[in-house]
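Hi W., the adenosine-5'-triphosphate complex you wanted:
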Amino acid sequence: MQRKLQLNREGEKIMTDTALHHKNSTLDYTVGETILKVQGVNKEFGGHVVLRDVNFEIQDIRRTGITQGQVFSILGKSGAGKTTVASIIAGLLKPTSGTVIGKDGKPIRQGEVGFVFQNYINFDHVTVRGNLLLSAYQGMFREEAADSFNPKMILKRFLTWIFNKKILWEKVEQYLDLFDLRIHVDKFTCELSGGQRQRLAVLCQVLCSSEFIIFDEPFSGQDPEMKEKACEMLIKTSQLDEYKTLGIITHDIDCAVWVSDKLLLMGKETDTATGKPKPGSTVFKPYDLAEHGLAWQDAEVLRMPQFRDLVDEIKYSWFPNM
Ligand SMILES: Nc1ncnc2c1ncn2[C@@H]1O[C@H](COP(=O)(O)OP(=O)(O)OP(=O)(O)O)[C@@H](O)[C@H]1O
Ligand SMILES: [Mg+2]
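Structure:
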């Protein structure tokens, strides 16, 4: 499937004729193949329905002349099942029924998708340098995970750790300034602030994951300035690699609309026959932010009228109590 769309800065669709292709337009993109397909996912815990028939797809979007991966957000109230669906996508939790299909058309395997947890777990008794080296080391072997326990592989891993620390550190070095961690490399994780810990957790995933990383509540417990920095960091992370896909799990509407190209609203649907909520949450509304002219913007987007209109629509129409 190949579809071509061009939007001007005001978010209006303009002709798709390539002869009129505007090279410098930031909103010029092509939608390609499906890279993630969540199909009929249900999840129960001890007979309690948490997820009901969750379905959505994420497509590969290419921007002309710009390195940019996908960013999608799942937005919902506390207890809506966001972490549950994210854990299923990451292969950390099995659905009661349904499947999650990856880019290769096969069900997602554990380890294929990186996961930055709600409480950013790093190794507390290891320095920032140590955490980053370990992540880069893990990243070197991610393709061989299934074969990791044979003696030859264990020896190879041991020798790599002993003799390749310099190469591993060179890989880490490229990212230290971008993530503002250079002056903290010799601190222990427990000596870092919340924002520094978060940046470390994100960089660890960038180093050890393949192309797909899920962030669970990356904006929670942060003041507005820190939130803006976290949004900028996620945007920069999505621009490290054209193939990088970031999934963001949040209840922060402003941040989700700012950083994403696709937004998925999650919650309970009402049974029209009884007027009562159906058991379990589902994805009940997707928003294509590129079509709204709101994808891939800098912090200026926060002041655009169409940004505020969409945030208000989501808040007042779908989540009045959030
Ligand atoms: N392992 C588990 N066993 C039993 N119930 C669970 C388990 N994990 C989650 N739940 C329940 O599933 C529901 C959804 O939980 P989940 O953590 O996915 O919500 P969430 O949307 O991430 O909430 P929050 O925004 O507060 O993080 C909750 O009612 C929770 O109690
Ligand atoms: Mg959660």
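The domain at 33-112+213-322 is CATH 3.40.50.300 (Rossmann fold).

W.
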